[in-house]
Write a structure and sequence with these properties.
This protein has 226 residues and is of the alpha/beta class. It has a single domain, classed as Alanine racemase (TIM Barrel), CATH 3.20.20. It is 46% helix and 18% strand. The chain has helices spanning 3-23, 41-49, 60-69, 88-94, 105-118, 141-154, 173-190, 206-211, 221-224; strands spanning 31-35, 54-57, 76-79, 98-102, 122-128, 158-165, 197-200, 216-219. Strands 7-6-5-4-3-2-1-8 form an eight-stranded parallel sheet. Helix 4 (88-94) links the parallel strand 3 (76-79) and strand 4 (98-102). The chain is globular and about 50 Å long. The termini are close together. The structure holds pyridoxal-5'-phosphate. Residues 35, 37, 58, 80, 166, 202-204, 218-221 line the site of pyridoxal-5'-phosphate.
């Protein structure tokens, strides 16, 4: 990916984010997290030099390697993938600014235990399986509010600040829309409990997600394309 191409991709996406935001009269800012899971540290550096500061990885090992290769750059690293119990300590040491994929109460319990031992805190989002897909992680929408409150109440070292969801895996726009509305409703309910981030929207559906209330999009392929 050349510098020119990365400037072009980034400009295009920022423009689209902005028009989707205006379309729904949103007064909030929409943050962009560049998902770099299929890309090299060099690709990330190219986008960093075009002004992008937040990047996300879905594997602890990749986060470790790329963040160390890019140690000289003040990048805000996010973690968006499935967290295996045996990788929890490594993730804590990498100290991402936000962990999007807290997928259930048990994982929260494990993570909180290790955070306490290390005397660390971690900002997290509760992942919601809003389209109830077997292939996806996350809590079911019916129990999301209750689980969120319970995690907040029981654990002191996890700072829960919102929700994350992946749109329905479908060509049917209505189904995708429905999954985003489900997540947004849960987010709205949880605002009284300190939820400020609604992370939803990827390359294929981020404009729709923003129109339906997302304030953080996670974009990989269309940001890094040649
Ligand atoms: C890969 C990934 C993305 C980005 O997907 P693209 O379609 O490439 O934009 C966003 N969120 C999560 C959790 C991912 O794993």
């Amino acid at each position: 990916m050349t510098k020119e191409q990365s400037v072009k991709n980034l400009d295009e996406i920022i423009t689209k984010i902005e028009s989707a935001r205006l379309k729904c009269n949103a007064h909030h800012i929409v943050s962009l997290v560049g998902i770099s899971k299929y890309n090299t540290a060099d690709d990330i550096k190219t986008l960093y030099l075009s002004g992008q500061r937040a990047f996300g990885e879905n594997k602890v090992q990749d986060l470790k390697e790329k963040s160390s290769q890019l140690n000289d750059y003040p990048i805000s690293w996010h973690f968006v993938g499935r967290l295996q119990t045996n990788k929890i300590n490594q993730l804590i040491d990498l100290a991402p600014v936000l962990m999007h994929s807290l997928e259930d109460y048990d994982l929260a319990n494990e993570l909180d235990k290790r955070l306490k031992i290390k005397n660390k805190k971690m900002k997290c989002l509760l992942q919601i399986n809003s389209a109830k897909e077997e292939s996806k992680a996350g809590v079911m929408p019916e129990v999301a509010v209750e689980t969120y409150k319970k995690i907040k109440q029981d654990f002191t070292n996890i700072e829960l600040i919102g929700v994350m969801s992946i749109g329905a895996h479908s060509d049917d726009k209505e189904l995708i829309k429905k999954s985003f509305i489900t997540t947004k409703n849960i987010f709205d309910t949880l605002k009284n409990d300190g939820a400020t981030i609604c992370s939803m929207g990827m390359s294929s559906d981020y404009e729709l997600a923003i129109e339906l209330g997302s304030n953080m999009v996670r974009i990989g392929s269309s940001l890094f394309k040649d």
